[in-house]
């Protein structure tokens, strides 16, 4: 689903996606409408503009995740402002791409977002991880009492997710198939009651799993 209030931009993005073989289930220029139609359209990935005329992109992210907990949201914005990026990620966006990206970069970002990777315009990934580390240090110690038990392999995969590796890189590192890595991540998400890879990365960093 494509959500952008500029008709020409929206049509261009929709055309690029269709030509790349994606099923376009809906397009809209309003955040409120996106949230309303999402349960019926059931998109796997939402390409969302940060600046919308009715409600903010952050509110749209929250509304989409409440309506469809498994949906992945790729922000497509003209703004690379740090606060905009962090607000979107904290709200649950899976990735953040600047509108200055090429068509090839955009389609690759959509493909990786659909696969569950956290995708950021170069330079923004470090910003996001840095913020998570700051939040993790500011938080209290993790409670052990009710902590879910992960298998050794799940913990190993989680450690590599925290280091920022893609599923493909993790598969190569651990000599596993891409599908097996995805399954481990999905199982871990279920056990930890998290929604996406961004939340998983934050959890891993809070647990100190991003160290050497």
Describe this structure in words.
The chain is of the alpha/beta class and 212 residues long. It folds into 2 domains: 2-130, 3-Layer(aba) Sandwich (Rossmann fold), CATH 3.40.50; 140-206, Winged helix-like DNA-binding domain superfamily/Winged helix DNA-binding domain (Arc Repressor Mutant, subunit A, Orthogonal Bundle), CATH 1.10.10. Helices cover 55% and strands 10% of the residues. The protein is built from 10 helices and 6 strands; from the N terminus they run βαβαβαβαβαβααααα. The chain has helices at residues 7-19, 31-41, 57-67, 82-91, 103-114, 124-138, 152-162, 167-174, 178-192, 197-206; strands at residues 2-3, 27-28, 45-49, 72-77, 95-98, 119-120. The chain has a 6-stranded parallel beta sheet, sandwiched between helices. The longest helix has 15 residues, at 124-138. The chain is globular. The model is unreliable at 139-146 (pLDDT under 50).
Task: List SSEs in N-to-C order.
Answer: EHEHEHEHEHEHHHHH
Poorly predicted ranges: 139-146
| Second-tier CATH architecture of the largest domain | 3-Layer(aba) Sandwich
Find the CATH superfamily of the largest domain.
Response regulator
Give the total of beta strands. Answer: 6
Strand order of the largest sheet: 2-1-3-4-5-6
Categorize the overall geometry: globular
CATH domain class of the largest domain: Alpha Beta
CATH topology of the largest domain: Rossmann fold
Distance between the termini: 39 Å
Structural class: alpha/beta
| Percent of residues in β-strands | 5-15%
Question: Average pLDDT, to the nearest integer?
Answer: 82
């Amino acid at each position: 689903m494509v959500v952008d209030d500029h008709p020409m931009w929206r049509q261009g993005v929709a055309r690029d996606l269709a030509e790349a073989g994606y099923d376009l289930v809906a397009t809209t220029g309003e955040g409120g409408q996106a949230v309303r139609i999402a349960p019926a359209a059931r998109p796997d990935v939402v390409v969302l503009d940060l600046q919308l005329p009715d409600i903010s992109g952050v509110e749209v992210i929250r509304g989409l995740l409440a309506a469809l907990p498994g949906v992945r949201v790729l922000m497509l914005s003209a703004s690379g402002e740090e606060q905009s990026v962090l607000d979107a990620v904290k709200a649950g966006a899976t990735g953040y791409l600047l509108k200055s990206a090429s068509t090839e970069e955009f389609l690759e970002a959509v493909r990786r977002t659909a696969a569950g990777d956290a995708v950021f315009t170069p330079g923004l990934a470090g910003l996001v991880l840095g913020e998570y580390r700051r939040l993790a240090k500011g938080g209290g110690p993790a409670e052990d009492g009710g902590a879910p038990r992960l298998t050794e392999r799940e913990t190993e995969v989680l450690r590599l997710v925290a280091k920022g590796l893609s599923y493909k890189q993790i598969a190569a590192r651990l000599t596993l198939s891409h599908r097996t890595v995805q399954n481990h991540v999905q199982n871990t998400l279920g056990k930890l009651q998290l929604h996406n890879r961004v939340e998983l990365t934050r959890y891993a960093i809070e647990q100190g799993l991003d160290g050497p």
